[in-house]
Specification:
5-stranded antiparallel β-sheet, binds 5-S-methyl-5-thio-alpha-D-ribofuranose, alpha+beta, binds magnesium ion, 3-stranded antiparallel β-sheet
C-alpha cells in the first residue's frame, strides 16, 4: 500500500513483514499497542517462540491525548528519526537503534527496549539506577555541546538548524510550558483546589511573570544546540546498568538549559511525590535522599564533563578566550533553574500533567504537594541567578521541606 493509514493490532504484523520480513515462518506473534504518551501510536510485536521483538512508532495526524480537534503534522516522525540517528552516533547508542523509517506511513521500526522500564515508573516504584547519572550526563553533554557553535562549523550548524526547524512542536511547548500555565487558560487542566492559590501566587504576579516571559523568549530565539526537546523522566528508559533516551520528536535548535531543566524538574517532582505518597518512613526518606543526590550529581557531573569536552572539542577561536567557557556554562545552569521552574508549574496546572503529582491518593496531601511544587518552582525561577551548583538546586528543595505545611 502506498498511502498513509493508521496502523492497528490487526494490521501491524503484516506491515512489519512487508517492510522488513523481520519474523520467521514459525513465529508465535503477540501484538500490543503500548503508547502511553500524548501524541503517537506505539506497537510492540513479540515472537515468543524465538524471543524476538520490535517496536513500531507511528505518528497520528492529530494530538492523541486531545483528539482530531487538534491536528498535528505527521512529519514529526521524520524529525524523530533524523535526530535519533544523530544521537545514536554522538552517544554510542544511548538511544534505540532504528531498523527502518517509512516516509509514507510516518512509522519508525526500531529496537525494543522492553527489558528497560520508563524511568518515571521505576522511580515511583522507588527503584534506583546506579549508572543513570553517568549515562544521562554523557547523553546531554555530547548531544548538546557537540551540536553547538562552540564545536561545529558554523555553516554546517546552520544547515542543521534548518533541518530541525520544528514549528508545530515548538508551538506546543511555547503554549503549554511557557504561556498557558501563567493565566487561567481554557486548555489548562486545573484541580479546583488550586485555582485561588494560582490567582494569588502566579496569575496576578506580574513581576514573576516577567521572569517567565524572559525564559520563553530565550526558548524561542536561542538556537544554541540540537535539543531532545522533551527530556523528562517519561522519555527515558532505564535498567540497573543502562539508560536509553527515547521520544525526541520535539527536537529543534534551542537553549541547552531546556533539556537539562526538564530532567531536573521531573526529578524534583518525584521527590515531592515521594514525600506525599510513601508511607513507610525508612523507604520514603531513603528514596528522597537518592533523588536529591541524583539531582545534585546530574548538575555537577554535567558541568564537569561539559568543561572537559569543551576543552577537547572547541573550534571557535573566540570561544577559546579564557573565561568564556565558564561564562557560557554558568548561564546554562542559571537558565536550567528557570526551565526547572516552568516545567514544574506546567505539570501542575497545564494541559499535560505527571503521575508523580496526580497519583497522590489523598486529596489534602495532593493539594499540599501541588502548592509546594508551584512555590518551589517560583523560587527556581526568581532566584535563578544565584543557582550555580547541584547543591544550590537541592538547597531550594530542602528549604521547602523544612517549612510548615502550606496554607
Ligand atoms: C499535546 S502534547 C503535551 C505534552 O506531551 C509531550 O510529551 C510534551 O511534553 C508536550 O508538552
Ligand atoms: Mg513524548
Amino acid at each position: 500500500m502506498s498511502e498513509y493509514y493508521v496502523l492497528d493490532t490487526s494490521t501491524i504484523f503484516d506491515y512489519i513483514q512487508g517492510e522488513l520480513n523481520y519474523f520467521g515462518e514459525d513465529s508465535e506473534i503477540q501484538c500490543n499497542e503500548i503508547g502511553d504518551g500524548n501524541l503517537n501510536l506505539v506497537f510492540r510485536v513479540v515472537d515468543k517462540k524465538n524471543n524476538k521483538s520490535i517496536i513500531v512508532k507511528q505518528s497520528l495526524p492529530y494530538v492523541r491525548c486531545v483528539g482530531e480537534d487538534w491536528p498535528l503534522n505527521i512529519n514529526r516522525a521524520e524529525i524523530e528519526k533524523n535526530i535519533l540517528e544523530i544521537e545514536y552516533e554522538l552517544t554510542d547508542g544511548l538511544v534505540p537503534k532504528i531498523y527502518k523509517f517509512d516516509p509514507v506511513m510516518y512509522a519508525t521500526l526500531m529496537e525494543d527496549l522492553s527489558d528497560h522500564v520508563i524511568m518515571r515508573t521505576g522511580l515511583l516504584e522507588l527503584n534506583q539506577y546506579p549508572r543513570f547519572v553517568d549515562q544521562i550526563t554523557n547523553f546531554m553533554v555530547k548531544t548538546l555541546l557537540l551540536t553547538s557553535d562552540v564545536v561545529m562549523d558554523h555553516q554546517q550548524k546552520k544547515e542543521l538548524v534548518k533541518k530541525f526547524i520544528n514549528p508545530e512542536l515548538c508551538d506546543i511547548t511555547e503554549a503549554l510550558v511557557y504561556t498557558e500555565p501563567f493565566y487561567n487558560a481554557e486548555r489548562n487542566n486545573i484541580d479546583d483546589f488550586i485555582i485561588e492559590f494560582m490567582e494569588g501566587n502566579v496569575w496576578n504576579d506580574n513581576e514573576f511573570k516577567l521572569e517567565v516571559a524572559k525564559l520563553k523568549f530565550d526558548f524561542m530565539t536561542n538556537a544554541q544546540a540540537l535539543l531532545h526537546g522533551d527530556l523528562h523522566t517519561g522519555s527515558i528508559f532505564v535498567k540497573e546498568d543502562s539508560t536509553k533516551v527515547i521520544d525526541p520528536e520535539f527536537a529543534f535548535y534551542g537553549p541547552i538549559s531546556y533539556d537539562v531543566g526538564a530532567l531536573i524538574a521531573n526529578l524534583v517532582m518525584n521527590y515531592i511525590s515521594t514525600d506525599s505518597m510513601v508511607e513507610d518512613e525508612e523507604k520514603r526518606e531513603a528514596h528522597k535522599e537518592y533523588i536529591l543526590n541524583t539531582t545534585r550529581e546530574v548538575i555537577d557531573v554535567f558541568k564537569e564533563k561539559f568543561l572537559r569536552l569543551f576543552d577537547e572539542t572547541v573550534t571557535d577561536e573566540m570561544a577559546k578566550v579564557p573565561g568564556f567557557k565558564e561564562w557560557y556554562l554558568e548561564n546554562i545552569i542559571i537558565d536550567t533553574a528557570g526551565v526547572t521552574g516552568c516545567e514544574m508549574i506546567r505539570r501542575t496546572v497545564g494541559l499535560a500533567h505527571v503521575k508523580d503529582l496526580d497519583d497522590i491518593p489523598e486529596l489534602d496531601k495532593k493539594a499540599e504537594a501541588k502548592k509546594i511544587n508551584v512555590l518551589m518552582a517560583k523560587e527556581f525561577i526568581i532566584g535563578r541567578k544565584e543557582i550555580k551548583t547541584g547543591q544550590d538546586f537541592i538547597d531550594i528543595v530542602n528549604k521547602f521541606y523544612k517549612q510548615e505545611a502550606i496554607a
